[in-house]
Amino acid sequence: MLTGFAQEYRRYQSISFQATKEQVEQALHKSQLTPDDFAALLSPAAEAYLEALAQKAHQLTVQHFGRTILLYTPLYLSDYCSNRCLYCGFSSQQLIPRHHLQLDQVEAEGKAIAASGLRHILLLTGDAPKLASLDYLADCLRILRPHFASLALEIYALDTEGYRRLALAGADQMTMYQETYNPVRYAEVHPSGPKRDYHFRLAAPEAACQAGMRGVNLGALLGLSADWRSDAFFTALHAHYLVQRYPEVDISLSFPRLRPHGGTFQAAVDVSDRNLVQFILASRLFLPRSGLTLSTRESANLRNHLLPLGITKMSAGVSTAVGGHTGEGESGQFEIADRRSVAEMCSSLREHGYQPVMKDWEPL
Description:
globular; 9 strands; eight-stranded parallel β-barrel
């Protein structure tokens, strides 16, 4: 029996993106959108209304967030992985040198990041629980806590008890990319490994909410499925589902597109810059109070242009390699497109009239 968001997914699995211009205009002028309105704003018909969407998205973002951008950076702890994800540079099939940080190396990486001024970080591992175990992750969190106000996790999917244990050790946020919400495509690109369990991963964000995480961030890897509109719709619908049921949790969205990596996987569809903009704008109107994150997968020029359109959080000073912040890392998970340092990002944001924020929260 399906439970949680899986039930909501089934309710909308036949959603259509063939809206009329009248349906787009009606959605554009509403103060509170339904999922059907959101689908209309993702439709091909809405492409003719991007300027109007942009103006409303900008107004809503300034209203709820001001002209601020929270900065963070990832810290890769381990690239060992038991999954065979066809699109990932850390796949178990990739013949790359593997690294797993010891606790003294974790602290050195943390100190190197903290020296840049950042106080929010995202800890990442591959899916190898015997090595990157809950005990190991809890030790990493305790070591890093004195240096950072916020410690977020992007690791393998856990149940509620697993997230509760890491929350007690100091984690306050988690990110979970469903990769694609299409279960058939999901099975194709995850041929083996624990990540192949589509429904366990789908339930993980709600498990994190129930475990007491302060924030939960969702995303789909755009380009993995041929129907980018469907993945965009279900990502935001998933966030909407959690916002309605867990108002005490900060629910946010990311918009990752496939990037070159160590494998030969080719995207199922080219998600254009215009497609990405439409997804961001429609998401802002559907979820006016949710944070929207744009990572260094996108170029500096594109990130600068997307600043006024709803984005509230960006990564900076990024390395996708284990040990990358102390110069010991080799192979990254994927190529980044924006290599600006934290100082360069701060300078750029100020030039565009935005305030870079290093810390907006601290545990008592």
